[in-house]
User: Fold this.
Amino acid sequence: MPKTYSSLPGVERFQTVPCPLCGASAQSSFLRSSDLSFVRCLECSTVYQNPSPVFEDLRNRYGEGYFAYEYANEQNFHHLMQLGLTDIGFDALTKRFAEPKTFLDIGCATGMLLESMKRKGWTVKGVDICRESAKYGRRKRGVDIFPGTLTEACFPDYSFFTVHFSHLIEHLPDPREFLSEVYRVLKPGGFAVITTPNVDGFQARLFKAAWRSAIADHLVLFSRRTLTRLVTESGFRILRTVTWGGLAVGTAPLLIKKPADRLAKMFGFGDVVLLLAQRP
Assistant:
């Protein structure tokens, strides 16, 4: 498994950073390899990469190589996102509201989910830092994707009824600032759908440094508890939490994988965690 989903980083600057959740500096080693170091905050238990790449260098990873990765995997990623939305009863929940159905997908990649939501009658917009992905989504799927960050997009206050971001928040150097911006652009009563790897899941505990999400592109590795704390401290109300993924494809025979997946979902130690949150 490569240490990064994007193009392998070249010459990058790194800096020592405090905990992105609570700001504390006290830490202990969590996972370490020859080229990567994750630490655990001794105050709030958040796991994060330290030292961490400077953002101006980090964003350069998300170019043509990253677009090729997203394009090659778009069908699988879209399927998983749809399963997540089904798990939280998203369609039934949002049908109860008379609000205009405005949907923002941050880290939308090639725009496949946006295209799907548009077909369901939603007004959609996307944001992706990979310019090649944004260009592809606009040209091939006819969806509006801003090439850059959420802050750079400068959406007005209360722009969206739903903000969705799947496997994005772990890539961000300042997830608290990001959630503040999500809160700002959400309508009161609107929903945030957040999906990220679960550092307290069975796979993370089993594989440790070889865990598939312990990679250079992931700056923060959240657990259910640390993600819930960050989201609630950002002003949101948690409505639902689900996890899934007991064993990755290819790591065990189906006779073992299927029951492991069911148990992981049932008892909350899946490889991925999804939170449905609401702005009051």
Q: What stands out?
A: The domain at 69-203+222-278 is CATH 3.40.50.150 (Rossmann fold). The chain has a mean pLDDT of 93. Residues 182 and 208 are 31 Å apart (CA to CA).
